[in-house]
Description:
Layout: E1 9-13, H1 16-22, E2 33-36, E3 40-47, E4 57-63, E5 74-77, E6 88-95, E7 98-104, E8 112-120, E9 123-125, E10 131-135, H2 150-158, E11 161-168, E12 171-178, H3 186-196, H4 207-217, E13 227-229, H5 248-257, E14 261-264, H6 266-280, E15 284-294, E16 301-306, E17 320-332, E18 343-347, E19 364-365, H7 366-371, H8 380-388, E20 390-399, E21 402-411, E22 417-422, E23 429-431, H9 433-436, H10 443-455, E24 493-498, E25 508-516, E26 521-534, E27 539-553, E28 556-564, H11 566-575, E29 580-590, E30 596-603, E31 610-613, E32 617-619, E33 624-631, E34 638-647, E35 651-661, E36 666-673, E37 679-688, E38 695-704
Parallel strand pairs: 2-10, 13-14, 16-20, 32-38
Antiparallel strand pairs: 1-3, 3-7, 4-5, 4-8, 6-7, 8-9, 8-10, 11-12, 15-17, 15-22, 17-18, 18-19, 20-21, 22-23, 24-25, 25-28, 26-27, 26-29, 29-30, 31-33, 33-36, 34-35, 34-37, 37-38
Helix pairs in contact: 3-5
Family: Belongs to the transglutaminase superfamily. Transglutaminase family.
EC number: 2.3.2.13
Cofactor: Ca(2+)
Amino acid sequence: xxxxxxxxxxxxxxxxxxxxxxxxxxxxxxxxxxxxxxxxxxxxxxxxxxxxxxxxxxxxxxxxxxxxxxxxxxxxxxxxxxxxxxxxxxxxxxxxxxxxxxxxxxxxxxxxxxxxxxxxxxxxxxxxxxxxxxxxxxxxxxxxxxxxxxxxxxxxxxxxxxxxxxxxxxxxxxxxxxxxxxxxxxxxxxxxxxxxxxxxxxxxxxxxxxxxxxxxxxxxxxxxxxxxxxxxxxxxxxxxxxxxxxxxxxxxxxxxxxxxxxxxxxxxxxxxxxxxxxxxxxxxxxxxxxxxxxxxxxxxxxxxxxxxxxxxxxxxxxxxxxxxxxxxxxxxxxxxxxxxxxxxxxxxxxxxxxxxxxxxxxxxxxxxxxxxxxxxxxxxxxxxxxxxxxxxxxxxxxxxxxxxxxxxxxxxxxxxxxxxxxxxxxxxxxxxxxxxxxxxxxxxxxxxxxxxxxxxxxxxxxxxxxxxxxxxxxxxxxxxxxxxxxxxxxxxxxxxxxxxxxxxxxxxxxxxxxxxxxxxxxxxxxxxxxxxxxxxxxxxxxxxxxxxxxxxxxxxxxxxxxxxxxxxxxxxxxxxxxxxxxxxxxxxxxxxxxxxxxxxxxxxxxxxxxxxxxxxxxxxxxxxxxxxxxxxxxxxxxxxxxxxxxxxxxxxxxxxxxxxxxxxxxxxxxxxxxxxxxxxxxxxxxxxxxxxxxxxxxxxxxxxx
Length: 705
């Protein structure tokens, strides 16, 4: 009898193209196999001889520093044996010295990098590139991130470009953004963040804990995470937040240096977090809210202080209304909550306030915000306030050398407007306000608000997360007042708009319309002010004020013009580095009735466009030219112009220094594109100068074989 010839593995084929196609992971630019949990993938094992009945063959998957069987971090799978921790393996076919195995991971398996080792008898075989990346699986019905709509999965998981909405409530701007979750090193950067999060293996199974950890790690505040926030207006020691056009450069740089990248503001944080969540396989979208409240003491009230000229005072205004704020929604079943809160969950990586001792926010069920269930984790009070707070305006007057405060108006319907995200499969804005709130003034809205107020402690100071520690039985005396909109005897109403396009270098021509609607002769004192402010509500320059007294009779209106000359604001505009808006505040007082009303409106500057010239279709690996053309139609010179362009799967991020572009001059730049991927690909271009911080555009090209 011959001695047994021992069984050895001579090779392993990860059947990458077949597996990644089935797992929708063929986009990842990485050597290793990337698969999604809860779904079978196949590997072909080559052996030194045929498999016999007594042979022992097993596949070992190990995750983490110190894999152990009893901790579930070392999985030893034998064909046709019962499953191990929800993982299964079966022999598909064997013939000659080859065997084809099918491996199905558990639909709630820990997400991350697994080392594969094949064991035959006592021999161990460690394949080259034997690290397998396991992701969440929105295609798998048993995964808590399951999404049953194909078009939505294509948008929220697979689309690597999109728009982030900025500007102001009345002039919303679609900022094109490259998420680039499939680009080189991006998946590795996400895996590095997962390791850095120190989440336990159990926590890595749950998209709720993973998304909370990622909301903390995308900002650098506690943990030297990806991005350092900076709203100072001085970005000399890094990249201005205005200059980014996508997440790829940021994540690649972070992965290379392991140090926070400078600098981000809210849309950059949201863009990067969106990339990270899509990359890990959790459906995700960027959400912009216009007039978002940052309520510092969580009493659902923002106090705004004005001087006697109607100019907003930064020094007293601690609460702020951001012209827009961008966060993310991620899609999952919340198995940790009572029924009814599955679906979209808000997470926010902009470092605003600490939650459980770290700058992190969410996941907070969007349905909990709508229903007023603000006791549910995580951070639902904070998110509720962002979209539902009320604003109270005060005028500060010096009386005998002391500041006295006079209330000049309350707005209850101004916060949390036009909540926006990119539509599924289309390049347009979708308004999702109804997912976050019931219609203003509806019966459901009142009910939801009363419910929310019953959980928000009147003192308003308390932890932001976990279930509310004490839901007090509220006696009448401590029941918080739900503010009401200012109602006037005269039916006083204010409107603010621009009468000409707001082009830098031109006069800013605006108008305040004062209306009354009840019978009588009314004398109205009107104060109007115009300021430049950052999108966070911080005033940067006072441009001018008006003061008029007008007479109105009964149901009538009058338009008061307000004009700011170019030299009153151009110097300030050029010196400001950031998202700058024009803020107009109007205060009206009716002499006869003492009615007071305050209104403020923010407006965005208008810019000339960039045009992109290129063919509509191109062939894979065939070069084609792409030209960027910009004509300065403003009557000011744009100084220190830079053009930034990027096309995922076409060409790498490129910057052209353009110097100064005089009025009427045309700038033209060209790149040669080499498409390396099929399908619709987008090119993004952005022009930055001292005077204008962000003209951007994008254009699609279809790449065919």
